[in-house]
Amino acid sequence: MGFGVGADFEASTAGDGLSFATGLTLGPENLDAFTQYPFGLFGDAPTQNADLDGFFNNGRSGFNVLFSEDSIASDGFYESILTELNDGRGYEDLFGNWLSREMAPAGLLWDNDNDEATDALVMAWELEDGTWEALRDIATLPNPGDPLDDVDPTAGTAVSILLDPMTFANEAVAIAYFTDQGATVSTEPNIEDLANLNLNFGITLADTFMGWTDDLTGQTNTNFTLRLASVAAPVSPVPLPAGAPLLLAGVAMIGFLRKRRIS
Amino acid sequence: MRKTFLTSAIVGLSAALPVSATTLGTWNLGNVAVGGVPADGETEVSTIFVDNNSTDSNGQIAYAAPEAQTPGLTALNDFYASGAGTFDGCIRAEVGGTDCATGYQTGNRFKLQLTETGAVDLVFNVDPAAAGTQGGMNTDGSFATPGTNTYQVFGRAVNLTGLELESFEL
């Protein structure tokens, strides 16, 4: 956070009247700043008005952050370990780094409440080897037709099956499984929410903040800049062909011999 | 660019002057190409340029109708208390209305799509307190935190960079 844009940006400093807010109670640990991937993928029902655990995990995942007056910086991933259901299925466990949307795996979606205005549920996802894994199933209505039953009889209820996932040889088999149960599922080429990181924090403006002056132009500006800068993960080096180490060793040896000759 | 930060130096007079406070103004669109009005079910974007004279961009605010509307992001002064704290306003998606606390799953997070890994600058105007005043009085007459105003940010960053990201900083 600071003042100005682009190359002219200058970071905010202590005492200038602009700061990230303190004393907040964000997230389950009552933090001043908190990030998480969407609850529908990584979340523990019944909190957050959700009655279904996250698709991948019944614990939250996101970035830890280092908080200071004028900076909120990520500090690696966290995974909320609640039970054996979620251990090893945190965002970092599954995907390594924060995925760009087109990198996210495909999923099967079910509009279980027949309402386009609400998010459809992810029921299954495609693994790297092309097989599909269902981490949710369709619940059997406990009392079909009973008006006292808190279930929409025209739709259906999904249940989490994190401890007992089902696997399918390919997408068609997975679709057929849900179709046989009366659920119409659709394919999402990339599970969008895997690219989405929710950011929760606050900004405090003190009455002492009166703006800043560009010393070159003399212009006074009564504004501030919320800057987000991201850093790409190192790209894994392309593996060398099998014979390359021997070749490199040979080149190095030639250099060594040359040096000996010179000296 | 060198900058001089201006602060109020005569707070000692505050008791004798009308109550005022530094408040959040509007989203400054100096480095933004505001997107159009989307049809229902469609998404538009407001492009954020690296500075006010550049055509290079590292990010954009996306918004989809009917849930959200142009320009996709708004800054509001609205005193409220929630489980996260007591606030004098917020920065959220432009979903209509003037309330910050729109509730769970109401699409109130602005969608900041990162299209490149460079910095994305969201600039916000500020209405400074009148010189020599101090207060932070809320519209209901209460004081959330005298002398300061705190704004809740409902944000969502979306990785569209084509690269895996390992870290970020605000």
Question: Can you walk me through this structure?
Answer:
The complex is a heterodimer of chains A (263) and B (170). Chain A is of the alpha+beta class and 263 residues long. Chain A has a domain at 22-199. Helix content of chain A is 13%, strand content 31%. Chain A contains three helices and 17 strands. Chain A has a five-stranded antiparallel beta sheet, with helices on one face. A three-stranded antiparallel beta sheet of chain A has the order 3-14-4, with no helix packed on it. In chain A, 38% of the residues are buried. Chain B starts with a strand and ends with a strand. In chain B, 0% of the residues lie in helices and 45% in strands. With 170 residues, chain B is an all-beta fold. The model of chain B is unreliable at 8-19 (pLDDT under 50). The radius of gyration of chain B is 18 Å and the shape is globular. In chain B, β4 and β5 (57-64) form a beta hairpin. The chains are: A alpha+beta (263), B mainly beta (170). The interface between A and B is large, with 73 and 77 residues.
What descriptors fit this protein?
heterodimer, A: 263 residues, alpha+beta, 5-stranded antiparallel β-sheet, 3-stranded antiparallel β-sheet, 3 helices, disordered C terminus, B: 170 residues, mainly beta, two-stranded antiparallel ribbon, 11 strands
Structure described in brief:
The complex is a heterodimer of chains A (about 260) and B (about 170). By secondary structure, chain A is of the alpha+beta class.
Give the overall average pLDDT of chain A: 84
What is the mean predicted local confidence, pLDDT of chain B? Answer: 84
What structural class should be given to the helix and strand makeup of chain B?
mainly beta
The most extensive interface between chains reads:
A-B, 73 and 77 residues
The tally of beta strands of chain A, per DSSP, is: 17
Secondary-structure element series of chain B:
EEEEEEEEEEE
**Helical residue percent of chain A?**
10-25%
Estimate the global geometry of chain B from the Cα principal axes. globular
- Overall radius of gyration of chain B: 18 Å
Give the biggest sheet of chain A: 5 strands, antiparallel
Strands of the widest sheet of chain A, in order across it, are 12-9-8-7-13
The proportion of residues in beta strands of chain B is over 45%
